[in-house]
Specification:
CATH architecture: Orthogonal Bundle
Number of helices: 9
Largest sheet: none
Distance between the termini: 65 Å
Length: about 170
């Protein structure tokens, strides 16, 4: 029996959802357009109606991630500690997406890479406004970004209450 293909009302959204699932299960390097076509039950050429290639798909995923991260940071208020904890919560909840957003599985010399770098700078701007100086903002961003990477790589045990442990780490002098 041949492979069955299905019509999707919104194939683009289905591909992005499938991409998120792959990211969280296996990481950015496991993404492929053919794999996502299989996961959504469509022929591989159908994917190209929505994404010119894997770079375009990963860019769309990363842009979704930056939109979600930005919303989480805005909702956390104006306390730098709350903003840092929101950043860490996002990374812990979406480790595959977080890795993709910050470069894993992407070519930086591509046009999509340039767009993604601009999105990273845009994500950094509100922190700079919040703390009032580029150097202080860079210090905080480096701290939470490095901590997020260590946490999602399993290098720092968080114990039964991750929020409490992360708060302790961020407030240690």
């Amino acid at each position: 029996m041949g492979e069955r293909h299905y019509h999707h009302g919104n194939l683009r959204a289905a591909l992005l959802d499938a991409g998120r699932q792959v990211l969280e299960k296996n990481g950015p390097s496991s993404l492929s357009l053919r794999g996502l076509a299989r996961a959504t039950g469509v022929a591989a050429p159908s994917v190209y109606n929505h994404f010119a290639g894997i770079e375009a798909l990963t860019l769309a995923l990363a842009e979704e991630g930056f939109t979600e991260l930005g919303a989480a940071l805005r909702e956390s208020g104006t306390d730098p500690l709350a903003v840092g904890l929101a950043y860490l919560r996002f990374a812990r909840t979406n480790p595959g997406l977080y890795r993709l957003m910050f470069g894993e599985g992407r070519r930086n010399d591509s046009p999509e890479g340039a767009t993604l770098r601009a999105r990273r700078r845009a994500a950094f701007a509100p922190l700079m406004e919040l703390v009032g100086s580029r150097e202080t903002a860079l210090h905080y961003w480096a701290l939470v970004h490095g901590l997020a990477s260590l946490v999602i790589d399993g290098q720092i045990p968080l114990g039964p209450d991750p929020e409490v442990r992360l708060r302790e780490i961020l407030t240690r002098q």
